[in-house]
Design a protein that fits this description.
Number of helices: 12
Oligomer: single chain
Shape: globular
Number of strands: 8
Helix content: 40-55%
Largest sheet: 8 strands, mixed
Strand content: 5-15%
Length: 288
């Protein structure tokens, strides 16, 4: 039995995820592996480095910093979240990411990105500093339109959520059969067709496969939700999601709202803590 943690993205909705994973770390809950998409990768890597509280701490500290994110950063660099500051200065200087603990921890950590030339998901087992620094994390979290394409080993990559927002099926395919999925949308949510498709077609006209994937993203996402609900009802997947829409925007600049979403995540995790332990501790999935 392999225990897995699956982390959806959603930009600053990921503060909910940060609250959930902090509670799980505080209570000694361990996994054999985790897989993160976009913000799920950027924030979830702290599970493997065992840095409780780091996500909310550095985001609250820098969210209003002009070097960190916003329209000014986008116009100056081509990235709404500064590649140099967010993936360089913050984790290496201001709120240091513990690569030593990350690399010693036997828990596997996967990130999901999207290959812009094929339009397909790329699943990468991220090994740490020697594995292209933070480039794989940055690629996974590089939102289309407002981020530059990230090149790694000749592959051109963008946000993993384009091709596989919630990689439950992939994790099952590599042997993870006792999984917890943290979603950042509340129950009943259904994704709609992207209203920015005309702009997407124009910006990425060199990459027709990517455009096709983005045009179909809402269909694939909603099909994945149906699969997740079926697995959840069968007791084969434990899903943690906010009860209502989170009070944060994708590029949230208010640190108080970040804290609010984080606290919602903590409360949700504490509410389900005993069930989480029961689910992970049993050979058979308990009835819910």
């Amino acid at each position: 039995m392999k225990k897995g943690l699956i982390l959806e993205g959603g930009a600053m909705r990921g503060m909910f995820t940060a609250g959930v994973i902090d509670v799980m770390m505080e209570n000694g809950i361990e996994f054999d592996g985790a897989i993160g998409v976009s913000a799920g990768a950027a924030f979830g890597c702290n599970y493997k480095s065992k840095q409780i509280g780091r996500v909310i701490r550095y985001n609250k500290r820098f969210v209003r910093d002009k070097r960190y994110c916003g329209l000014g950063v986008l116009l100056k660099t081509g990235d709404i979240y500064s590649a140099e500051f967010c993936y360089g200065e913050v984790p290496l200087k201001y709120d240091i990411f513990d690569f030593e603990t990350f690399e010693k921890n036997p828990m596997e950590f996967y990130v999901v990105a999207t290959d812009v030339e094929t339009g397909e998901a790329v699943y990468h087992k991220y090994e740490g500093m020697a594995d292209h620094g933070f480039d794989w994390i940055r690629a996974s979290a590089s939102m289309p339109i407002v981020s530059r394409i990230v090149e790694i080993d000749g592959r051109k990559l963008l946000d993993g959520g384009i091709a596989d927002s919630i990689p439950v099926k992939y994790f099952e395919s590599i042997g993870y059969n006792k999984n917890i999925a943290i979603l950042t949308q509340c129950g009943g949510f259904q994704k709609k067709r992207n209203k920015a498709m005309p702009l997407i077609k124009l910006k990425y006209k060199k990459y027709p496969k990517l455009v096709e994937t983005m045009a179909n993203r809402h269909i694939v996402y909603n099909e994945t939700l149906t699969y997740i609900e079926e697995k959840e009802k069968a007791g084969e997947l434990f899903v943690i999601r906010p009860e209502t829409k989170l009070p944060v925007g994708r590029v949230e600049k208010n640190p108080e709202k970040l804290q609010e979403a984080y606290e919602i995540g903590r409360k949700t995790a504490l509410k389900h803590l005993e069930r989480i332990k029961l689910f992970l501790g049993s050979e058979e999935s308990p009835e819910f």
